[in-house]
Design brief:
Elements: H1 2-11, H2 24-37, H3 41-46, E1 49-50, E2 61-62, H4 64-74, H5 80-86, H6 95-105
Antiparallel strand pairs: 1-2
This protein binds zinc ion (ZN).
Zinc ion binds near residues 51, 55 and 70.
C-alpha cells in the first residue's frame, strides 16, 4: 500500500497555493499514471483511458493526451485512491469500478 500512499500525495497536491502553475510532482505523476495505465489490458479493451478527472468521473474514455490535459486542468476526482485501498474488499462492484480497481493495482 506504500505505492498507493505515494500516489495519493501527488494526486491531490496539484498546484502551489495562490499560484496557477502546476507542481512538477503532479505533472510527473500524471505522466506516470497515463503511461502505466496505457500498458494495461483495459487500455486496449476500452480503446483509451477512463479519465479520472473531476469532470469526467471515470465515465469517459479518452486519449492519453486528452486525459493529461483534463488532469492538469481539473485534477483527480475526490477520493479516487480510496477505491484502490478498499478495492479488493468492495462487495458487488460493477464492471466500471472493477476495471478502475484493476488499473490501480498496476500503479
Ligand atoms: Zn476528464
Amino acid at each position: 500500500m506504500n505505492n498507493i500512499l505515494w500516489n495519493q500525495r501527488w494526486m491531490y497536491d496539484r498546484c502551489y497555493s495562490g499560484r496557477s502553475s502546476l507542481k512538477k510532482s503532479f505533472v510527473e505523476g500524471v505522466e506516470e499514471f497515463v503511461s502505466k495505465v496505457s500498458q494495461h489490458d483495459c487500455y486496449d479493451n476500452d480503446g483509451g483511458i477512463r479519465c479520472p478527472c473531476v469532470k469526467c468521473d471515470c465515465t469517459r474514455i479518452l486519449e492519453d493526451r486528452v486525459v493529461k490535459v483534463h488532469l492538469y486542468k481539473n485534477g483527480f476526482k475526490p477520493n479516487y485512491w480510496i477505491w484502490t485501498d478498499d478495492g479488493e474488499h468492495m462487495p458487488h462492484v460493477d464492471d466500471k469500478k472493477t476495471k478502475i480497481i484493476e488499473i490501480i493495482k498496476y500503479l
